Amino acid sequence: MKRDARTVPQIPVLGYHHVHDGPDDFFRASPELLGQQMEMLMAEGYTPIGPKQLLELAGQQVETRYAMVTFDDAYVDFVDHAWPILKSLRIPTTLFAISDYLGSWNDWDRIRWAPHQHLDAETLRRLHADGVTVGSHSRTHRPLVRLWGARLADELDGSRRTLEDIVCAPVASFAYPGGAQSWRVRRATRQVYDLGFATDADSTGPVCDRYAIPRFDPCFCGDRDVFRRTLDAHCGLGRPPRG
Question: For the chain, which residues make up each domain, given as ranges?
Fold first, then answer.
């Protein structure tokens, strides 16, 4: 039977934002929680992979329990608090950067009471050299479902070209700002990237659309049982047997 390369296996894709011990709790995991969740991910039998490995599995249904660890927005707290943990555990990690905000503050965000700085280009380049996969999160984090034509294309392709110039490597995966997408946005994304990551996508079944890959933010899964159940819910293999 011919494989349908329009799909990839349904696996848990963890979509973090902030990792720090600061006062604001909006989309934030503490370093302690991140470490606990990464250790639990592997204890539950998951094999972390990157987008390149996921793309290689296009059109297949798998028996291995894979997972992906991703971060949106490329904040400074990633290099300060998250990457040391992930690197020590040898967990492949993908960082989705907003190209026009490298080195700037998140004044694009409606949550103005929680200012955070984005990584600059040189730090992003160093992280890529250190093993982090860099993906695009658009140029300006504008909701793509509200854009059309050249403005939509520029958010997609303009970001890719800028990031590729920085890391001197292909940038082949994209995370939709706010996780929102539509058939029109997916079609435009397909012209530029190999994979598109969403949040408002179907997480059931053994496979999913390559351009509507669901993710969840583990900062809302502080309880171990909630985290385990969420992993299982996003795994196309279903819940594993427990002894």
Answer: 7-233
The count of other CB atoms within 10 Å of the CB of residue 61 is: 14
Measure the CA–CA gap between 122 and 157, rounded to whole angstroms.
21
- CA distances for 166 relative to 25, 74, 82, 104, 155, angstroms: 31, 14, 21, 16, 17
pTM: 0.94
Other beta carbons within 10 Å of 78 = 27
Tokens of 121: 């280009």
Q: What is the CATH class of 7-233?
A: alpha beta
H helices of the chain, where?
31-43, 51-56, 76-77, 83-88, 121-129, 149-153, 159-167, 183-190, 224-233
The CA R_g of the chain, rounded to the nearest whole Å, is 17
pLDDT tens for 154-178 read 999 999 999 999 999 999 999 999 9
| Residue 31 exposure: Cα atoms within 13 Å on the Cβ side | 13
CA angle at 18 for the pair 178 and 94, rounded to the nearest 5°: 70
